[in-house]
Amino acid sequence: MPTAVRIDDLYRIAQPSSCRLSPDGSRAVAAVSQPDREQLKNVSHLWMCDVAGKRKPFQFTHGKASESSPKWSPDGRAIAFLSARSGKSEIWLIPADGGEARQLTKLGGSISEFEWSPNGKKLAVIFTAQDEEAKKREEMKKRGEPGQETPKVREISRLFYKLDGAGFLPEARSHLWVVEVASGKGKQLVRDGKYSEGDPCWAPDSRSLYFTSNRSADPERDLDRNDIWRISAGGGRFVKIRKFAGGASNISVSPDGKWIAFLGQPDPDARWNSVHTKLWLIPSTGGKPSLLTSGLDLSISNSAISDTFGIPPTPRPSWSPDSRELAFVLVNEGTAEIWRVDIAKRKPEPLFQPTGVPIDWDVDWRHRRIVSAFSNFETPGEIGVVGFPGSGEPRRVLTSLNTKLMSSRQVALPREVWSRTRKGHETQGWILLPPGLRKGQKCPAVLYIHGGPATQYSKVYFNEFQVLAAKGFAVIYCNPRCSTGYSEKHLSACAGNWGTLDYDDLMAFTDECLRLEPRLDRRRLGCAGGSYGGFMVNWIVGHTDRFKAGVSSRGISNFLSFVGSSDFGFAWPKGCYGEDNAWANPKKYLAMSPLTYLKNMKTPVLIEHQEEDHRCPMEQAEQMWASLKWKGVPCEFVRYPQEPHGMSRSGRPDRRVDRLERIVAWFERWLTQKFGARRAR
């Protein structure tokens, strides 16, 4: 008999990602991560799947170290992957039929990307060297010498000197290398220390490479000017591939070498979250880009969000072997879909429209099918295969990574809701009721607001929502204006002007949920959210008292201080308003700052934040806490050490469990009057 979802079920959730097909299409390898109680971290291993389903999927790698980013060699005999088995992120090779893995690279820093050459003899690698001072500390530690733990005195000269999840950045930039597969010997191709490279992509003949790099006069002031470049695989002079002035990413060279497909948008000075990312095509020698997705008013990227897989990567557009078609991903009304376009006809059409989200995917053009790691309302993740439309191949699930857990739990299934503001704007969302809630029975409800705001709640399993539902709370959640998955007008409606139309959408959605579902108790409403969602909780409690309690996670309270303290806050004035600095017009930033409305705040708020959050720094929570506490508003402040902005998705599992316990206890205290144990399991 299924039982209620438990907070500590988090340890049992297996999350697939990085799904890649073998060259012959017969097998798929994927990385599968799971929280480890003993190691107090998420551990990822590779799994192997037989696409035909004749052999059961099995765990391909083992051990305490994680493996990620698996990629097949062109001949299908080996798989390269990233692992820190040796203490640092390096590339390892393992025979595709099993056996011992061997370490290929010994670069001694950090590898973020790599790609096989088409002839299988080399790997293109994006590598960031370790600071000499950090190397010396490691050697001192090995020798047992004192002083290796002494904090470093940092002289800051760069605007962009820290990054959430990475901390203080090394002095070196990320550079393009080529590594020989036979020997493991590496050569740095681009040596200009002022700039970084990324997104390596081989030409079909393996003689040259394409990459992206922002080589403007001051890349830290012009963030959206990534260009495409070409260089010989042996190094030397590199040349720019002419396109528009705006940025390019996810570059993909056609099998015949004639074309480059990429994602981007033409205007490098466009306000953030105001235009869709689109799919473009240029000759491989450069030229005027042509738009391949002109008929789609949707973003060509995967921005679906979950607390088990985070935000999925967007793979490069996938070329058909004849260089005539491209497959790509887009977000659409709570799903992520895979589409294709004929580069001559320019009429995009769907390849796969799931009732959920492909977390990562690969296309087998020869057999006309797609293999993907996916999530939907009923599972955090599995690996499946589906045929192209008209192929006659039905959708099949290859794995049962979470089947046992999900079948043993009362998983709540949400109801889709569309609300409308007084001026007619429609917003999509969902109501998740507690399992077993009887007709006529009332329950408290929590309005949950996603981060971004340029992301979307999707038709996926959201663990935090299931935990709250199991504890007797309904969860209502939606995609207000500034979310992705809808028109560009919807996306850009309140870019740089948060707390306006997006707030209207959230309130209209709450009203519609109360109208449609009489079991929601309008007297016991809570609100919660993280990042932008945390900002919005702070904003809501300063503009209405309809909510009886709030949980503000890693949010923003003061935009003037945020501009100077966030990892990319220095670019906020230009990115949002097209101006040089916030102090030219501080009233604008104060008007969008929740603390400006402190006089109206009286709602009890739980503030939780991470001490290594460089995206929305801790000082934002400190200001909110000090202001509410001084005013006498009931509040609690929880600080998680050693954790970055994304702790709720990828942090230490025991801290994620602690966070969920505190959120449940807070809402039980203020919405159900259960003043028992502070932490209810």
Walkthrough of the structure:
The chain is built from twelve helices and 40 strands. By secondary structure, the chain is α+β, with helices and mostly antiparallel strands. The chain has an eight-stranded mixed sheet, with helices on both faces.
Low-confidence regions = 675-681
How many alpha or pi helices?
Answer: 12
- The helix content is 10-25%
| Main sheet specs | 8 strands, mixed
| Global Rg | 25 Å
Q: How does the helix and strand content classify structurally?
A: alpha+beta
User: How do the strands line up in the largest sheet?
Assistant: 32-33-36-34-37-38-39-40
Measured distance between first and last alpha carbons: 20 Å
| Percentage of β-strand residues | 25-35%
What is the total tally of β strands? 40
Shape: globular
Mean pLDDT: 95
Provide a compact summary of the structure:
The protein is an alpha+beta fold. Helix content is 16%, strand content 33%. The chain has twelve helices and 40 strands.
Protein traits:
single chain; 681 residues; alpha+beta; 8-stranded mixed sheet; 4-stranded antiparallel sheet; 12 helices; 40 strands; 33% strand; disordered C terminus
In terms of topology, how is this protein built?
Blueprint: E1 15-21, E2 27-36, E3 41-50, E4 58-59, E5 67-72, E6 78-83, E7 90-95, E8 102-103, E9 110-116, E10 122-128, H1 132-143, E11 162-163, E12 167-168, E13 174-180, E14 186-188, E15 198-202, E16 208-213, E17 227-232, E18 238-241, E19 248-253, E20 259-264, E21 278-283, E22 290-291, E23 304-305, E24 318-319, E25 325-332, E26 335-342, E27 349-352, E28 357-364, E29 369-376, E30 379-387, E31 396-397, H2 403-407, E32 415-420, E33 426-432, E34 443-449, E35 456-457, H3 463-470, E36 474-478, H4 488-492, H5 501-516, E37 520-530, H6 532-541, E38 549-553, H7 559-565, H8 572-577, H9 586-591, E39 605-610, H10 618-631, E40 635-640, H11 647-650, H12 653-671
Parallel strand pairs: 23-35, 34-36, 34-37, 37-38, 38-39, 39-40
Antiparallel strand pairs: 1-2, 2-3, 3-4, 5-6, 6-7, 7-8, 9-10, 10-13, 11-12, 13-14, 15-16, 16-17, 17-18, 19-20, 20-21, 21-22, 24-25, 25-26, 26-27, 28-29, 29-30, 30-31, 32-33, 33-36
